[in-house]
């Protein structure tokens, strides 16, 4: 039947709610991301709280200049802020089936009020002022702005329930309300910023406790959207056995034909920037849609569906595509009879399996990678023929890795449907043993989609068994994975012993006694050290971006980030550069990248970091920025050291020369070194052949920018952590000097064959800090605390990251 008037009203010329009142609620990882981000922001703001800071004075001065024009407006805007929150609450109370939202808002308000009291107490704000700030519209300035915090909590809690225009209006009201609070001198800039962070964190807590809707259209709203595209439907129902993250429905037309409808709703929460970014970072087979629009997504899928059909690949027919009047994007195609995951193995003949393989091979031969081959992507049409669907992630002119990954995924999904033997027989029948051998390196868990991995857990065979059978069918040897050295209690004990010896050695070489260092450590401001520890994990976030830039293969950010944290764990037993290369090669192999190519990617990553380090040192030394202000001393002059004593740099160079001399003079060591030369030559030859393809990354400006930018960000963040550690002892130097010290020491320590640069780094930081004018005992203490927060403590979460990589079969 046609769309009724009630349904038209439900779709709304002015849509208020994003979902039906009874829509299921989910607890989304994006709320965890918002919660963590808000807490980090509060931690950084707490360092300057309660203010005023320079930024506060600058904004106050700007608002004072605007006072004659807009001073009268602040009271109105601040009142609107309150009325808006009251309106959101009353709207939920007056709407049928929305009463549970009131509970969400109550929880968020209570959490926001408590968090405001706690954050204010840490900054030294009297609790009575926090309470008064809830009703006051003027001075005194309060950290945190209570009313802004609670209103933010209320409107952000309601955001997933509201349609997109109302979400944007709410954000605008909160932003203007925060400015009005500053203009009325009820708070300052950091107080308003902290209030917004508190409100977002409280809303995230409420969403994690109660869940929130996904913002998907109702069936009636989909009918209206289809009518906007000229497709008249009498009934719309959810498509059977579709992925939960996809909004796919089946529409029955007036002619009795069923159509498949994929909807990217204007109000869908997972189509927002944060949701889309999280999905792209964590889910295999997905890509980021931060800059793309809903229209571009459906048009992209429709375009590649038709391009595939033009080169002879069987696909579903595109019926309609476009943007409905309310802003929802729809792709309408013919409906398949079933997909591969729903068919019994007996219903799939060998000819049908061959047709599936020929379809994928024909697609790849045209230079198109599907990038999302799963059981739901291989469908059987109503006439019994097979077809490919879901071209949302397809790309043209893809590299060899993407094309082979398509075929590896097809091998796995067909094996899930009909068993290993028949799946391999169909593959060999189309691509031959040589083609199967080329696909074999990509038959890895990391190369599969999340749904396929979930289906594998319920299979009667394992992926290793499939690989073994494929090796036999192809008549080749299974390429082994790189071996990693294990971190054992013995290696940790050795690390602690070496760390103790390093501590004693550094203090002796710096010419200070243990008592003065202990006194300096005892005087440290622990708030700054906690801030340094909180900032330390962000270094690996920047390095993960550099690693993704170094590889031409399609990687996901979260696994690469876990890789960077795990490198900090494995560096307990391997030198820093070796640990990075060893683990990167291992993880890249799990994505189907051959070991030689993976090693090339790792080397490119390391070389880009080296280039950034050298460039920073040269830039600071040749520019007018502050650098080293004195010679590199062996000890503080106040310690009564001999001014003619050799510097620590000379001692370190002497140690290197002695090591080289011993290696050349001792026959056993010399023979071992000479025996390595032929193997090194062979390895370099193999590496050179693999590097030619890997160096293609240098022809991509975006990749080069990611490499250099990630490594630059890591160096700047490390210098920032060093600044916080130095600040904890009441000392400050120019940031360019800290960059110079950190970069020079990192460059030198990374070349040393010592796990984590132990000893070398501590001495280097001590010498470097002395060279920029830091007293000896403070330099030693800063070096120790900096290494503690950047090397000795990170293996704690690095071990958790290593377990995550192994549990998800990335390592």
UniProtKB/TrEMBL annotation:
Keywords: Cell membrane, Membrane, Transmembrane, Transmembrane helix
Transmembrane spans: 32-49, 69-94, 106-125, 137-156, 168-186, 192-210, 495-520, 526-551, 563-583, 610-635, 647-666, 704-726, 738-758, 778-800
Compartment annotation: Cell membrane
Topological type in the membrane: Multi-pass membrane protein
A Pfam family recorded for this sequence: LPG_synthase_TM
GO cellular component: plasma membrane
Main location group: membrane
UniProt keyword Zinc-finger, yes or no: no
Top-level taxonomic group: Bacteria
Name of the protein this chain belongs to: Flippase-like domain-containing protein
């Amino acid at each position: 039947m046609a769309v009724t008037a009630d349904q038209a009203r439900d779709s709304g010329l002015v849509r208020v709610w994003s979902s039906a009142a009874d829509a299921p609620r989910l607890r989304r990882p994006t709320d965890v991301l918002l919660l963590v981000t808000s807490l980090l922001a509060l931690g950084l703001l707490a360092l300057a709280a309660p203010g005023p800071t320079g930024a506060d004075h600058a904004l106050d001065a700007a608002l004072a200049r605007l006072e004659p024009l807009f001073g009268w407006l602040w009271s109105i805007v601040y009142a609107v802020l309150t009325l808006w929150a009251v309106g959101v609450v009353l709207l939920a109370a007056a709407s049928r089936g929305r009463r549970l939202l009131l509970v969400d808002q109550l929880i968020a308000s209570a959490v926001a009020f408590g968090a405001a009291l706690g954050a204010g107490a840490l900054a030294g704000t009297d609790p009575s002022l926090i309470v008064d700030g809830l009703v006051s519209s003027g001075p005194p300035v309060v950290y945190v702005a209570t009313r802004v915090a609670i209103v933010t909590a209320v409107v952000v809690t309601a955001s997933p329930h509201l349609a997109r225009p109302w979400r944007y209006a709410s954000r605008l009201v909160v932003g203007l309300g925060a400015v009005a609070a500053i203009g009325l001198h009820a708070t300052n800039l950091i107080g308003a910023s902290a209030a917004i962070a508190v409100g977002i964190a409280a809303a995230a807590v409420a969403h994690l406790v109660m869940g929130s809707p996904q913002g998907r259209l109702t069936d009636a709203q989909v009918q209206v959207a289809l009518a906007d595209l000229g497709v008249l439907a009498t009934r719309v129902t959810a498509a059977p056995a579709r992925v939960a993250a996809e909004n796919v429905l089946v529409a029955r037309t007036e002619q009795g034909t069923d159509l498949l409808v994929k909807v990217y709703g204007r109000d869908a929460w997972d189509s927002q920037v944060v949701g889309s970014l999280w999905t792209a970072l964590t889910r295999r087979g997905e890509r980021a849609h931060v800059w793309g629009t809903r229209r571009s997504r459906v048009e992209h899928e429709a375009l590649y569906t038709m391009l595939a059909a033009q080169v002879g690949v069987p696909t579903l027919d595109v019926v309609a595509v476009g943007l409905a009047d309310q802003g929802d994007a729809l792709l309408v195609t013919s409906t398949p009879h079933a997909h591969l995951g729903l068919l019994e193995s007996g219903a799939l003949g060998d000819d049908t399996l061959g047709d599936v393989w020929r379809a994928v091979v024909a697609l790849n031969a045209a230079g198109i990678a599907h990038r999302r081959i799963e059981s739901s992507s291989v469908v059987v049409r109503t006439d019994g023929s097979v077809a490919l669907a879901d071209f949302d992630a397809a790309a043209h002119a893809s590299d060899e890795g993407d094309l082979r990954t398509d075929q590896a995924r097809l091998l796995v999904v067909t094996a899930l449907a009909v068993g290993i033997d028949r799946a391999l027989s169909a593959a060999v029948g189309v691509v031959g043993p040589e083609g199967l051998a080329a696909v074999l390196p990509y038959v890895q868990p990391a190369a599969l989609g999340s749904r396929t991995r979930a289906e594998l857990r319920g299979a009667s065979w394992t992926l290793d068994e499939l690989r073994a059978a494929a090796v036999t069918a192809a008549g080749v040897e299974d390429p082994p994975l790189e071996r990693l050295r294990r971190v054992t209690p013995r290696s940790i004990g050795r690390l602690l012993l070496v760390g103790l010896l390093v501590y004693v050695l550094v203090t002796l070489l710096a010419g200070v006694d243990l008592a003065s260092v202990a006194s300096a450590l005892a005087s440290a401001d622990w708030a700054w050290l906690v801030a340094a520890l909180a900032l330390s994990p962000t270094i690996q976030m920047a390095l993960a971006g550099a690693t993704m830039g170094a590889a031409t293969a399609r990687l996901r950010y979260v696994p690469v980030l876990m890789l960077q944290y795990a490198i900090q764990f494995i560096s307990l037993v391997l030198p820093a550069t070796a640990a990075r290369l060893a683990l990167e090669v291992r993880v890249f192999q799990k994505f189907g990248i051959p070991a030689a190519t993976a090693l090339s990617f790792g080397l490119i990553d390391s070389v880009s970091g080296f280039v950034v380090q050298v460039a920073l040192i040269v830039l600071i030394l040749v520019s007018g920025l502050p650098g080293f202000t004195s010679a590199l001393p062996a000890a503080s002059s106040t310690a009564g050291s001999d001014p003619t004593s050799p510097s620590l740099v000379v001692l370190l160079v002497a140690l290197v020369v002695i090591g080289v001399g011993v290696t050349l003079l001792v026959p056993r060591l010399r023979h071992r070194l000479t025996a390595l030369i032929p193997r090194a030559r062979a390895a370099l030859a193999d590496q050179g052949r693999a590097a030619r393809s890997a160096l293609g990354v240098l022809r991509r400006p975006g990749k080069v920018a990611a490499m250099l930018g990630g490594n630059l960000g890591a160096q700047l963040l490390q210098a920032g952590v060093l600044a916080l550690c130095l600040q904890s002892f009441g000392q400050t130097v120019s940031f360019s000097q800290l960059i110079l010290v950190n970069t020079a020491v990192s460059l030198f320590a990374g070349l040393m064959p010592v796990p984590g640069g132990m000893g070398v780094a501590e001495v280097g930081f001590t010498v470097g800090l002395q060279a920029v004018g830091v007293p000896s005992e403070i330099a030693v203490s800063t070096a120790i605390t900096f290494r503690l927060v950047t090397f000795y403590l990170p293996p704690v979460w690095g071990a958790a990251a290593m377990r995550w990589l192994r549990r998800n079969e990335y390592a």
